[in-house]
């Protein structure tokens, strides 16, 4: 903060301890600075976030906010590769969780692109900014040019031994075929992050602890409403963090930057609505 004080809003005048409290106690535990000049030849502007490693690992493992973990479902370029073994493992588990949840949302047969579209869309499902403020084709724009990058992330796990009895790829028609038995559905449910499981449990029991978690998930595995409960849980997480982080951004970015940043988002959304749909 001392080195890059110009990146911060008026909150910097309250000191670094105050900034740290805002970062950790509000929103998704990440502090974003927006519209920061990159000082390159093209005068580009960037947005960057600051988060504690422990908070990052917790979100990757448990999907407490799906704010950073959701962004890391997509291909990213690490400027500095993660050094911590705990962080490396958490990144891997985050990807695996995205696969298990996506398989629960997909039909028995699906394409590779549909899988990646489902994975990429997890952290946008429930985000109010997808209604007003985001490019309507955002998920497709992320996935379609990056199939190879998604494949590099997810193919090793899809081809791994634990997945062999759950999922097969039919090369004759380029379709995945998954096992949709209740036992396999229960397996996927048991692999979901803790926050998703807890929200599903509360839905099933009406906030009353009348079942053990495993029994509740087994009951859900045999229910035709499994997808509905999963989507409701994810939307609850995403909606909660998107509202709180956006409100937090009014202070961390400042009013003028927030207006400017929001205007850019609305402009992109408008362009996406006017763009002809591809057949």
From TrEMBL:
Pfam families: Tam41_Mmp37 (PF09139). One of its GO terms (biological process) is cardiolipin biosynthetic process. It is found in: Mitochondrion inner membrane. One of its GO terms (cellular component) is mitochondrial inner membrane. GO terms for molecular function: phosphatidate cytidylyltransferase activity. Pathway: Phospholipid metabolism; CDP-diacylglycerol biosynthesis; CDP-diacylglycerol from sn-glycerol 3-phosphate: step 3/3; Lipid metabolism. Its EC number is 2.7.7.41. Its cofactor is Mg(2+). Its main location: mitochondrion. Keywords: Lipid biosynthesis, Lipid metabolism, Magnesium, Membrane, Mitochondrion, Mitochondrion inner membrane, Nucleotidyltransferase, Phospholipid biosynthesis, Phospholipid metabolism, Transferase. It is an enzyme of class 2 (transferase). It is a peripheral membrane protein. Belongs to the TAM41 family. This is Phosphatidate cytidylyltransferase, mitochondrial.
